[in-house]
Automatic annotation (TrEMBL):
Reactions it catalyzes: IMP + NAD(+) + H2O = XMP + NADH + H(+)
MF-aspect GO terms: IMP dehydrogenase activity; metal ion binding
Binding site for NAD(+): D261, S262, S263, G312, I313, G314
InterPro entries attached to this UniProt entry: Aldolase_TIM, CBS_dom, CBS_dom_sf, IMP_DH, IMP_DH/GMP_Rdtase_CS, IMP_DH_GMPRt
Keywords for the protein's UniProt record, in alphabetical order: CBS domain, GMP biosynthesis, Metal-binding, NAD, Oxidoreductase, Potassium, Purine biosynthesis
CBS domain mapped to chain residues: 103-165, 167-225
Matching PANTHER family: INOSINE-5'-MONOPHOSPHATE DEHYDROGENASE, INOSINE-5-MONOPHOSPHATE DEHYDROGENASE RELATED
Organism: Robinsoniella peoriensis
Cofactor: K(+)
BP terms from Gene Ontology: GMP biosynthetic process; GTP biosynthetic process
Record's protein name: Inosine-5'-monophosphate dehydrogenase
EC number in record: 1.1.1.205
Record-linked NCBIfam families: PRK07107.1
Amino acid sequence: MAFYYNEPSHTFSEYLLVPGYSSAQCIPANASLRTPITKFRKGEEPAISMNIPLVSAIMQSVSDDNMAIALAKEGGISFIYGSQTVEQQAEMVTRVKNYKAGFVSSDSNVRPDQTLADILVLKSETGHATVAVTDDGTANGKLVGIVTSRDYRVSRMDPATRISEFMTPIENVIYAKEGISLKEANNVIWDHKLNALPILDNNQRLVAFVFRKDYDSHKENPLELLDTSKRYIVGAGINTKDFAERVPALVEAGADILCIDSSEGFSEWQKLTIEFIRKNYGDSVKVGAGNVVDREGFRFLAEAGADFVKIGIGGGSICITRETKGIGRGQATAVIEVAKARDEYFEETGIYVPICSDGGIVHDYHITLALAMGADFCMLGRYFSRFDESPTNKVMVNGNYMKEYWGEGSARARNWQRYDMGGASKLSFEEGVDSYVPYAGSLHDNLSITLSKVRSTMCNCGALSIPEFQSNARLTLVSSVSIVEGGAHDVVLKDNNITPVK
Ligand code: IMP
């Protein structure tokens, strides 16, 4: 006879947190959201921790290099989508690793034997006044001089004048060496009243410019997530089919952490993928696995060697897996059970395997609930897709700005590797939809509000860190009637069309 669970499985919206005692020190400014993302032994530090408990979903409509840079600036990690060619994905990872806030690759470059006329053409094309003069005319050639609009007078000079005759030669150019921080570069700019500071390597080759006007928009972010070489940390999705080609390319490109992207992860395919990584790279390559929704699934992946385990089947906003296949579990119940399994495993082995609640975050407080229930961090798709930084088009629908958002299991994404149970080479039916989500503005502005809500609720519950919150939180299931009580009720909401009566 089939096995039946006695209790129904629940979603986040069916729970509330019961506040606890808060001391005078328990204020949001003192609350830390730092959390591990890779497994670690008792008493040791995890190889990678995040400064906020959020990662962006492994999806075409969510996580490209642009999103990865924006989220790393805030202290989280993006997993760049794997449903593209190995080369394209590795290229995105490379772009994140090469990115340095405020350090701009020169887009206006000439050779000294070119003419004033060439400078004028370049200026009309780029709109930029600072031109690098390099020996080979490239952005990374040996810097021999600089031309700005102060170096020439169009009305008084022959357009055929050679650049070498009027440029500011390198002997008179103030420059800095590669390795300087943005703050130090900015000090040089201010001390010498410069508009642009060239950054050179040890062979006098041009690496980048730092521009005076860019500094304010690139002020260092206190929570940004950097590797030991001060590059942004980035993740990447892999699948259980082409890992032998994809993993080496992503590792070579500098991906800090990988994650097997699958709609259902309690399978031998995941074990084989992790085995490949351990055999070729030992523990130096970090890899998460999933998704699972129960104790057995967690143990299987933890024992297979996963660095973190991802939870969730069927709860994603664009997901129709439950409707099409009849599999899944309420996300809250799944997180609670897997968190228990993680703690049991830690007791037994001394190894802490972080867990991620993936999908189904509708309100900001759902993140807080997931953490209280034991998740170490959450993966979100819909949430991030609404921002300027997501890769999709902003469109107008019925007078409102929207962003496109589609599932990896939709015909649009064609990510058959995510759903394949072996053999198939195309999607035989869809498990996701193509949709719109309301446009919400910048990631930074939205995230600030979301995270202040999380910190504030943690303080209501007397916790100043995620581990403390996980062990002290008290949760209650709510009845359907009390859900109604939780919204505005028995009042008529004001709108602007009401005329006051004197
Ligand atoms: P959301 O944050 O509720 O939008 O859920 C995002 C999560 O849904 C992703 O991280 C995936 O785990 C999952 N997902 C992505 N695409 C699909 C799909 O097409 N079908 C089912 N689940 C999906």
